[in-house]
């Protein structure tokens, strides 16, 4: 048990408390990173309602919905993984984490398919933008923000997948037990952040204005 | 040098000796005290780089024609000065040096919560610094430290991206430092050290860390958008693509106003320590002091619009931001009153740290009161973008933060190095700094009031006399900044041994040896009383 205790901490509970608080603080900074982009999105949407509604209609609602389902399911399975390690079931915990990572990869692939479709439709500003019409300019601002926001989110998913694979390997090697599983819990917190950001992205970008 | 170490046994039992003495042992050290010294060396370097830029500007402004440099070079000079002084000196100054050194000592811990993260943030700082130096060597950037759009995204043909990347990277260093402090203060306090027994320096660092963590991401993302806009033509701030340049100002000042508090809150913490020790008194109104620190940090997030009174923001928004800016002055005033009340009937010792602290109070008051002028919309419309603004923020940042930083360095120098310095020389430098500072920047209030705009290298002849006066002041100021380099160097070579507590100060950091051992305390201290118990100690003695 004490093998995991760094020398500057007094006891394992203190170390765990520090690690968890550090992660929550990190999540607070992440919320602000995405907060700026979502604020910019709201301001621009309010300025150009027509162009942004048009932009939303050009996104792929079906793929976006599947991605949402995939991500939410992965979050649920990650929570199962945490529960399993608390019950000392290393093997099924490892399996749950691997499935979570696999769903993360699935999310990235689906999102990549969206990007490819958009390339063919000419919806990527400055790279290939073939729209014209009255709202084409403000729709371009929509797609700028769409790429910055979803791009940054996908980057977080990618980092999360790598993190989960490392944790899965450590679980397989038996590094974690009901007495010590802080890294696993921290990875789970990070994965929830990725989930929650998407919960704001999906209605804001895909759903809003889609039916208008 | 080695001889001194060997002969001097306190040094042999300290972090300076125990961690090894190769360059490698310093560059890979996770000891918060060594990292503090790495920061101290690097920010000193950047301070003098920024100071050279300032000296060149003052030299240009001696001549109304500004013949020393072209308008373009002048733009690049003040931009370099601003970027370096704000992000590579002032923001890390007290937190990353004194904070790094003292936070674990003051709360009674062996290190910060995340020692490797701490070292990593120093490397981030250095990488950001390299980008900034590279930007300078390749020809510089001319947007001003504020990077206003659309100039920075559409028109400037200087190296905006390099500068923006440098600031982006150093931003992460400050986020991680803040995170480390918050976790340390929450989870690693010694037995008995509950929140209301923490020294005010810790409260100052705590409030600052909150601001660092919650404001800096906004800056980082905004700078990222500027980079994307220049590289890929993303049109979020670009009016020709339907974007909104004022949105940039909102985001930028959402960080950069609180950034002023990143600079001043730790300074307030330092000054509280110096005043209590120098007057041998318990701080007046301890709880008011803690809550006013947090109050400033909180309200500071709600006033950013006072930078945009003339930027086309709605009149009602301006009124709200103006009122909130007046409100944030209330907790600041509480602090000044409490410092003065602490001095009242104290046994004041005018040693160098105390002189710096008293200088801080005076200059901070002048800077703060002129801030109220600028918070009033009607006055600001006249004074905005003049030297009045320049003088105002230099009173806060240089008169406030730098005085407190140097006061703190003098106060804790014996703790950090284990040696004493020449008190006479230090007192002389402190007094010279106060005089030089006022001589440099008070004329700029007058110039601004008379209508001289900032950021020009030429001016009409009626402003000549005051500009010359300001440049003379800059010479005095420069001498007072160079002096500590000499007497501190002499102190390192041949200063007398300081002993654990040369000031007879209260506080956990003075209970361990000077310099402290690698793990700070031989035994984890147990705290039984609040901070600044000067009265009690005097009575016992
Ligand atoms: Cu401000």
Textual characterization of the structure:
Chain A is mainly alpha-helical and 212 residues long. Chain A is built from six helices and two strands; from the N terminus they run ααααββαα. Chain A has helices at residues 12-47, 49-58, 61-86, 90-121, 136-172, 182-207, and strands spanning 123-124, 128-129. Chain A is elongated and about 65 Å long. The N and C termini of chain A lie far apart (59 Å). The model of chain A has no long low-confidence stretch (mean pLDDT 91). Chain B has 541 residues and is mainly alpha-helical. Chain B has a single domain, classed as Cytochrome C Oxidase, Chain A (Up-down Bundle). Chain B is built from 19 helices and no strands. The longest helix of chain B has 37 residues, at 71-107. The radius of gyration of chain B is 23 Å and the shape is globular. The mean pLDDT of chain B is 93. The A-B interface holds A 7-10, 14, 17-18, 21-22, 25-26, 28-30, 32-33, 35-37, 39-40, 43-44, 47-48, 51, 125-127, 137-138, 140-141, 144-145, 147-148 and B 109-115, 175, 179-180, 182-184, 186-188, 213-218, 220-222, 225, 228, 232-236, 241-244, 247, 251, 519, 524. The structure holds copper (II) ion (CU). Copper (II) ion binds at residues 257, 260, 306-307 of chain B.
Name some characteristics of this structure:
A: 212 residues, mainly alpha, Four Helix Bundle (Hemerythrin (Met), subunit A), two-stranded antiparallel sheet, 79% helix, B: 541 residues, Cytochrome C Oxidase, Chain A, binds copper (II) ion, transport (chain B), respiratory chain (chain B), transmembrane (chain B), Cyt_c_oxase-like_su1_sf (chain B)
Strands, helices and their partners?
The complex is a heterodimer of chains A (212) and B (541).
Chain A: H1 12-47, H2 49-58, H3 61-86, H4 90-121, E1 123-124, E2 128-129, H5 136-172, H6 182-207
Antiparallel strand pairs in A: 1-2
Helix pairs in contact in A: 1-2, 1-5, 1-6, 2-5, 3-4, 3-6, 4-5, 5-6
Chain B: H1 2-7, H2 9-12, H3 15-18, H4 23-27, H5 32-60, H6 71-107, H7 115-137, H8 151-155, H9 160-187, H10 200-232, H11 245-279, H12 286-299, H13 315-343, H14 352-375, H15 377-383, H16 387-417, H17 423-450, H18 464-494, H19 534-540
Helix pairs in contact in B: 5-6, 5-7, 5-18, 6-7, 6-9, 6-10, 6-11, 6-16, 7-9, 9-10, 10-11, 10-12, 11-13, 11-14, 11-16, 12-13, 13-14, 14-16, 14-17, 16-17, 17-18
């Amino acid at each position: 048990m004490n093998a995991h205790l760094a020398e500057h901490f007094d006891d394992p509970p203190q170390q765990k408390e520090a690690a968890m608080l550090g992660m929550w603080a990190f999540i607070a900074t992440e919320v602000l990173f995405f907060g700026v982009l979502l604020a910019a999105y709201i301001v621009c949407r309010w300025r150009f309602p027509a162009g942004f509604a048009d932009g939303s209609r050009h996104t792929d609602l079906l793929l976006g919905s599947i991605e949402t389902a995939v991500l939410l399911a992965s979050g649920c399975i990650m929570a199962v993984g945490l529960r399993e390690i608390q019950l000392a079931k290393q093997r099924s915990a490892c399996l749950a984490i691997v499935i979570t990572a696999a769903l993360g990869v699935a999310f990235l692939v689906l999102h990549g398919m969206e990007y490819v479709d958009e390339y063919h439709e000419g919806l990527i500003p400055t790279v290939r933008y073939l729209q014209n019409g009255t709202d084409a300019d403000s729709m371009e601002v929509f797609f700028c923000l769409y790429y910055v926001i979803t791009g940054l989110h996908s980057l977080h998913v990618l980092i999360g997948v790598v993190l989960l694979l490392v944790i899965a390997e450590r679980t397989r090697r038996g590094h974690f037990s009901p007495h010590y599983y802080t890294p696993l819990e921290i990875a789970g917190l990070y994965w929830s952040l990725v989930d929650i950001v998407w919960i704001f992205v999906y209605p804001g970008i895909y759903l809003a204005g889609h039916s208008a | 040098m080695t001889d001194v170490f060997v002969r001097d046994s306190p040094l042999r039992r300290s972090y300076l000796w125990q961690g090894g003495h190769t360059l490698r042992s310093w560059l890979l050290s996770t000891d918060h005290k060594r990292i503090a010294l790495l920061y101290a060396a690097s920010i000193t370097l950047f301070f003098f780089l920024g100071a050279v830029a300032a000296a060149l500007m003052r030299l240009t402004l001696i001549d109304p024609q500004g013949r020393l440099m072209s308008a373009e070079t002048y733009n690049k000079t003040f931009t370099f000065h601003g970027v370096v002084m704000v992000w590579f000196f002032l923001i890390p100054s007290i937190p990353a040096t004194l904070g790094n050194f003292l936070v674990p000592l003051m709360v009674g811990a062996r290190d910060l919560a995340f020692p490797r993260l701490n070292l990593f943030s120093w490397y981030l700082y250095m990488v950001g610094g390299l980008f900034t130096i590279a930007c300078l060597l390749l020809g510089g950037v001319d947007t001003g430290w504020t990077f206003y759009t659309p100039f920075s995204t559409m028109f400037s043909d200087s190296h905006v991206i390099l500068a923006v990347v440098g600031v982006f990277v150093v931003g992460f260093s400050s986020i991680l430092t803040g995170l480390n402090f918050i976790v340390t203060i929450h989870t690693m306090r010694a037995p008995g050290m509950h929140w209301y027994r923490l020294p005010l320096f810790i409260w100052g660092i705590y409030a600052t860390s909150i601001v660092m963590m919650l404001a800096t991401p906004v800056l980082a993302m905004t700078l990222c958008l500027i980079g994307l806009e220049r590289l890929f033509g993303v049109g979020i701030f670009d009016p020709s693509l339907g974007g909104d340049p004022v949105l940039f100002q909102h985001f930028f000042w959402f960080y950069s106003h609180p950034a002023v508090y990143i600079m001043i809150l730790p300074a307030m913490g330092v000054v509280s320590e110096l005043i209590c020790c120098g007057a041998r008194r318990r701080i007046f109104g301890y709880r008011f002091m803690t809550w006013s620190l947090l109050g400033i940090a909180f309200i500071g997030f709600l006033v950013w619009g006072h930078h945009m009174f003339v930027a086309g923001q709605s009149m009602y928004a301006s009124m709200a931001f103006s009122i909130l800016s007046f409100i944030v002055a209330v907790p600041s005033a509480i602090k000044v009153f409490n410092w003065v009340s602490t001095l009242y009937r104290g046994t004041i010792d005018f040693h160098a740290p105390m002189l710096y602290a008293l200088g801080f109070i005076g200059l901070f008051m002048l800077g703060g009161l002129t801030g109220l002028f600028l918070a009033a919309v009607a006055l600001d419309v006249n004074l905005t973008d003049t030297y009045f603004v320049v003088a105002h923020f230099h009173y806060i940042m240089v008169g406030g933060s730098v005085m407190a930083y140097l006061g703190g360095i003098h106060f804790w120098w014996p703790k950090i190095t284990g040696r004493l310095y020449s008190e006479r020389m230090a007192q002389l430098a402190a007094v010279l700094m106060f005089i030089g500072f006022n001589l440099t920047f008070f004329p700029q209030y007058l110039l601004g009031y008379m209508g001289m705009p900032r950021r020009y290298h030429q001016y009409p002849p009626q402003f000549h006399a005051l500009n010359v006066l300001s440049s003379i002041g800059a010479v005095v100021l420069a001498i007072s900044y160079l002096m500590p380099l000499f007497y501190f160097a002499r102190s390192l070579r041949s200063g007398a041994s300081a002993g654990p507590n040369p000031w007879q100060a209260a506080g956990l950091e003075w209970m361990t040896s000077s310099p402290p051992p690698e793990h700070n305390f031989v035994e984890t201290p147990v705290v039984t009383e609040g901070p600044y118990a000067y009265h009690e100690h005097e009575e016992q003695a």
